[in-house]
Structures are given as C-alpha cells and as structure tokens.
Automatic annotation (TrEMBL), chain B:
Name of this chain's protein: Zn-ribbon domain-containing OB-fold protein
Residue stretches making up the ChsH2 rubredoxin-like zinc ribbon domain: 21-49
Lineage: Archaea, Methanobacteriati, Methanobacteriota, Candidatus Methanoliparia, Candidatus Methanoliparales
Domain ChsH2 C-terminal OB-fold: 56-116
Taxonomy, superkingdom: Archaea
Organism for this UniProt entry: Candidatus Methanolliviera hydrocarbonicum
Family matches, as Pfam families: OB_ChsH2_C, zf-ChsH2
InterPro entries attached to this UniProt entry: ChsH2_C (IPR002878), ChsH2_Znr (IPR022002), NA-bd_OB-fold (IPR012340), Thioester_dehydratase-like (IPR052513)
Length: 390, 134
C-alpha cells in the first residue's frame, strides 16, 4: 500500500495539575489552541480522534467525542473516542495518522482529555486505574498498578543481581531527573526539584516503590493537528513529520512472560523503527511511559535504547538527563509533567514536537532530528510507539 | 442492586468450575479436549488451538514466587498492608496473580510456594499462596 507523508502542524496542551474545568472544557482549550497555532480555522478540521479513558466512570459522560466536536463548533464531522487506558490518545493519534496517510482525510484533530485529580479520593482513583487489569483473575486480588511495577522492579533487581539499596537509589535517580525536567516545564503538574532523599524518605506505596516513585493523578488535555505533508509545507516552516508508528496488545499479567521486558513493547517499537527506516541508536530524544520510576527503566530497555540490564546504570550515571547521551522524558515525564491518563499520549507527542522545533525553552536539547514517544496502557496491555522527525 | 465486593471475583460460566473446585480444596484447571493443552487461567477457548470444549484436571498446587510486593496504598476496600505476588505454576502451564500469606522477611524471589484456600463467604472460597516450608 502506498501511503503519503503526514505532518503535525499544530500542538497544544493545558497546564497539567488541578483544573476546575470538565473534560470537555479542557479538551476545548487545548483543541482550539492547537488549531489556531496551525494557522487554520476550525472549519478546516475534517475529523476528530479523541482519547479518553474513564470519563464514563468519573464524569458520567459516555460518547465524549460527539460532545467534544460540538463544543468547538465542528458540527456534523465524524468523531470517535479511542480508549486504550493510559495509551488512549496515542491510539487515537495512530488511527488519525493512518487515515491522513491513506488519503482518506487531509486535516484532522487528535486530542486527549482526562480528569484524574479533582474528582475523588486516592482509593477511588486507584480502583479506576485497576479496572484496566484483567477483571477475571487479577483485580480482586488487590493488585494495584504500583504493585505491578513494584513486582517488575523486584524481579529486575533479582535478574540483574542488584542490591535493594542500589536498586532503590537508581529508581530515585529517575524521579530526581524527571522532577528536574518538570521544573523547567511551565506546563508541568509538579514544578519542583527534589533530591534522592526526598524519594527514599517518602511514604511506602508498594515496596520498593515510594510516593515519589509514582506519577501524580492529574487533570489535563492535549491536542495536535495532523495534515498531509503537502499542505503542511504551506502552513508552517517547521512541519514535524510522522516517521513511523507501532502498536501492540497483550492480555492478562497471568499470560505474560517477562515483566521486566514486555515483549509487546519490543514488537511495537520494531514496527515503528522499520517504517521509519532507522535503528534505536538513531533516536535523539524519547518520551517514555514512566508511570512509575521502574516503568521508565523497563521502557528504555525494551525500546532498545539501552542494553538489557543496563538501564538502571544509565539512569544513575546521568545518561538520560537533558544534557546526557540520550535525554529521556525532557518534559518531566508522567512523573513530574503529570498523568491525565487519556491526555498523556498526545502530551508526549507535544513535547517531542516542541523539541524538534527548538521551542522547548530551558529544557531544549541540542541537535534533535528524531524523537520517539512510547505510551503504555494497562498491565502492558496496549503499547504504542510513535517516531517523529524534522 | 447488590453492592459489589471488589475483594471477590466475578464468576462466569467458563470459570465457574475453577471456583467450585476451590470450595472442595482442589486446584482445577482446564485441559483442551482437542489438543490436550493444559492452561491457567480458565477461559472459553483453548489458547493453543482455540477449541471450545475443555476437561478439568487437578494441579499439584505447587509453584515458585516469580515476584512480590507489599502494598501500602490499597485499592478501594482493602486493608493494608497486604502482600501480592505472581506465582509460576510448577506444571509450567501459566501464572497466578495472588494474595500471599507470609511474613515479608521470609519471602525470596523463586522460592517454592504452595497454594492454600480461604473461605470468603458461604459459597465462595479464594486461593492464597504461601511459602512451601511453612
């Protein structure tokens, strides 16, 4: 099948954190900003692809997409809600990309929106997140999401013969680095520097993970305008091209082999690398799904960006810092930028676009040509890889 | 409407025999009538050949501890702390995510474990895993 090149011409995200807006209203804020900064009008948008995970549970709003289209005056255009847990809007992005690449649409809007912070107490939010785990055989055991990534961390330490002390310090380094980046990002939920001791002395969540190993529950939305490369060149001097995409699915944790190396992530990223005709070594920056500090180490290894068993050392030695060998989560990641789950996929892409355009301000990385966004939903259930280039 | 207890599983047709087995202190899993594959967890179609008729066979209830964690911030309706773990079943037919009954200082990854049963309600028995040497 022949496909055409597709570019991102507009991008926006709300300030992540606490919002007094509904999911629709946050969507409208990000969506209109991304449309106006694309130099187009809302009437130019042909279709809406919306990521939202738990609006039905949290706000009682089903069929969010139709209300979203109407909210910004896109009357009667096709709109669809995509749900892939924490990867919802990255899945929406992949489908939007495919339809523009296939020539079915020219100019479309992709967005994600979610309220995770302001609605209910932690026990409720933990329960909502748990809903993406296997309902038949894992949810009732009391398995929580921190618990899954705590078990992954414990297995990782055993597999590579890392002491609990050294392992916990490496995990803390991920959090310190992402908080440092978040402090440089005016849109981040948590904009404060922390130290290794802040992490190590924070309350236990799921051993060995502590409060500062975990991303916050955030409110927020993010949006992107995609169009054909041909149209993009007329709209902007800095179109950012979609070089490759990949997506994979995995079932219950009971059916997975190695939770320190999710095979679905390797499969998804290989597809994306192949389409982009590049190797992992060609990646200049990456936003990865660091819902927990251990999740970042697992991600950078399964993506092939760091050798298996070496990710924890790379974090400790500063290789993933903004000025390191391969900057990871320059936005602050889910850890500090925040994690409004349905918005996270688009927000990761937003950061890569800003970096590729040279618009990332104090956290700008030098000489960025190719960037990767890695999003994960559920217990490694849905994994997406999106590679962008200048 | 009856209030759902999130500490209890929802039981469906394809999995009912598994839960009934636990009531009799038996760890029953499915064996495909077509290809004879034995597997956990129970499901409506064989994961190897996708056939939809199954026998039930009893496993040893032995396994090893793939990983574990002590939970301090729980999901709704759970009292902390509690320990969860992933068990590699001895017969090599799958994994179980389970509550673990043990002192955390006694737990080691890859240690031998055994299944035990806990009556949760009159007609519901749940599984729990514990170190084999206890």
């Amino acid at each position: 099948m022949s496909i055409r090149d597709v570019a991102i011409v507009g991008t926006s995200m709300t300030k992540f954190g606490r919002s007094n807006k509904t999911e629709l209203e946050m969507f409208a804020e990000a969506a209109l900003d991304s449309i106006y900064n694309s130099d187009i009008e809302p009437k130019n948008i042909e279709e809406l692809y919306l990521g939202n995970c738990a609006g039905a549970i949290n706000e009682g709003q089903v069929n969010m997409c139709a209300h979203a289209a109407e909210e910004i005056g896109l009357h009667q255009i096709p709109s669809t809600t995509f749900e892939g847990a924490c990867a919802s809007s990255a899945v929406a992005f992949i489908h939007a990309y495919r339809e523009v690449a296939a020539g079915y649409n020219d100019t479309v809007l992709v967005a994600g929106t979610e309220r995770n912070m302001t609605l209910r107490p932690t026990g409720w939010a933990t329960r909502v997140f748990q809903c993406s785990a296997d309902q038949r055989y894992t949810q009732f055991t009391g398995l929580t999401f921190p618990g899954i990534f705590a078990m992954a961390a414990n297995r990782y330490m055993k597999k590579y013969d890392i002491s609990k002390e050294a392992g916990e310090e490496a995990l803390a380094c991920v959090s310190v680095k992402n908080h440092h980046n978040g402090a440089l990002n005016p849109k981040a939920h948590l904009q404060k520097e922390i130290t290794i001791d802040t992490v190590l002395q924070s309350p236990k969540v799921a051993d060995p993970l502590k409060l500062y190993d975990c991303c916050p529950f955030s409110d927020g939305a993010a949006a992107l305008v995609l169009t054909s490369a041909e149209k993009a060149k007329k709209l902007t001097d800095t179109p950012i091209y979609v070089a490759g995409v990949g997506q994979s699915s995995q079932g219950s944790l009971c059916t997975q082999s190695d939770i320190t190396y999710p095979i679905g992530r390797a499969v998804s990223s290989k597809k994306a690398y192949k389409q982009a005709k590049i190797e992992p070594k060609d990646i200049d920056i990456a936003e990865v799904h660091d819902c927990f500090t251990s999740a970042e180490i697992i991600a950078i290894e399964a993506l092939g960006l760091f050798e298996r068993g070496h990710g924890w050392k790379a974090e400790k030695e500063g290789e993933t810092a903004v000025d390191g060998k391969l900057p990871i989560n320059t936005s602050g990641g889910l850890k500090a930028k925040g994690h409004p789950i349905g918005a996270t996929g688009c927000a990761q892409i937003h950061e890569i676009v800003e970096q590729l355009r040279g618009d990332a301000g104090k956290r700008q990385v030098n000489k960025v040509e190719v960037g990767l966004a890695d999003n994960m939903g559920g217990e490694f259930g849905t994994i997406t890889t999106i590679i962008l280039r200048r | 409407m009856e209030k759902r207890n999130f500490r209890h599983p929802q039981i469906f047709h394809s999995t009912e025999k598994f839960w009934l087995g636990l009531r009799d202190r038996k760890f029953l899993v499915q064996r495909c009538k077509n290809c004879e594959e034995i597997f956990f967890p129970p499901r409506s179609h064989c994961p190897k050949c996708l056939y939809n008729e199954m026998d039930w066979v009893e496993l040893s209830g032995k396994g090893t501890l793939y990983s574990w964690s002590e939970i301090h911030i729980p999901s709704r309706n759970f009292d902390v702390p509690y320990v969860i773990g992933i068990i590699d079943l001895e017969e090599g037919v799958g994994r179980m995510v389970s509550k673990i009954r043990a002192r955390v200082e006694d737990l080691r990854i890859d240690m031998p474990m055994k299944i035990d049963y806990e009556d949760a309600e009159e007609d519901l028995t749940l599984y729990v895993w514990m170190p084999a040497q206890s």
